[in-house]
Amino acid sequence: MSQYVVKRLISTIPVLIGISIMLFFMLRALPGDPAQVLAGQMATQEDIQLIRTQLGLDRPIYIQYATFFWRLIRFDLGRSARTQNPVILEIWARLPNTIILAVIAITLACLFGIPAGIISAVRPYSVLDYFVTAATLFGISMPVFWLGLMLVVVFSVLLHWLPAGGTGSWKHLILPSITLSAFVVAFIARMTRSSMLEVLSQDYTTTARSKGLKEKVVIIKHALKNALIPIITVVGLQFGMLLGGAVLTETVFAWPGLGRLIVDSILARDYPVIQGAILIFGLLYILVNLIVDVIYAFVDPRIRYD
Predict the structure, then answer these.
(1) How far apart are CA 118 and CA 222, in angstroms?
(2) How far apart (Å, rounded) are the C-alpha atoms in residues 149 and 115?
(3) What is the mean pLDDT of each run of 10 residues along the chain (306 residues)?
(4) Burial zone of 176 (CB within 10 Å; 0-12 exposed, 13-18 middle, 19+ buried)
(5) What is the rounded CA–CA span in Å between residue 112 and residue 178?
(6) Which of 149, 197, 228, 250 is deepest in the core (most CB within 10 A)?
(7) pLDDT of residue 304
(8) Are residues 236 and 284 in contact, defined by beta-carbon separation less than 8 angstroms?
(9) CB 57 within 8 A of CB 34
(10) Alpha helix stretches (DSSP H) within the chain
């Protein structure tokens, strides 16, 4: 197992290099002059040229990438063009907020999604199953920003129960967590239902029932255990997406996370921060997938990585 983990960690290096190349050249293809944006509308051409020189934007693009890559292999993400602070410090200040939000959202998704999927699979084509199916379809098709705005209108503006945005207490986490987890709850519930239905139709489940085991034991010990692999896969992928896809939620609720930092940096054409934040997202996504692969071996002993 340890050798497999080391190999996977080594394999992340070319992946990150590929991400850095695509990211670097795609950012440079964006319309607009970052020096002009940073200088402001009242700036003179001399001011703009000075900023362009300071940022190295007057050099050939392959020289710019070589400089960026040389800094990257020394774990130096550069300095923010807006604040002049090291990019790693800008990211470090926001990353915990994004991780907290993603962890709470995926926890809520598992607590509600997996039981809903199990109940729906155990009683297929019942009223309860139709209700869960309709609720999950609603959750999957509902735009995140719309749900967030509706929650703000109801619970903040009309009822005054919860804050509309910002940080400072556990109450600030409730609305963004619900918003972020809505889609994931629905997705996990549908995957759990599908996986459980397949397992419940297998011969070993029928055999377990024929032995006189209690239905609860059959469902939890025999069915759910064998249905966990695809569920774990979905949970891992969705957690990785939550880490990198909380941009809309963080923007709606003014949550000071990494997604909002990226939005602000894109508007300001702050290339170093955008590059650093997306590379961190890529690294987190790879690590989450590695953890999921390791969990497979614990859930199903038949899986070997030696």
Answers:
(1) 13
(2) 28
(3) 78 86 85 76 79 82 89 86 88 90 92 92 88 87 86 91 85 90 90 90 84 83 84 86 77 86 84 88 86 79 65
(4) buried
(5) 11
(6) 250
(7) 65
(8) no
(9) yes
(10) 2-28, 34-39, 45-55, 61-73, 87-122, 127-141, 144-151, 171-200, 203-210, 215-217, 225-244, 247-252, 258-267, 271-299
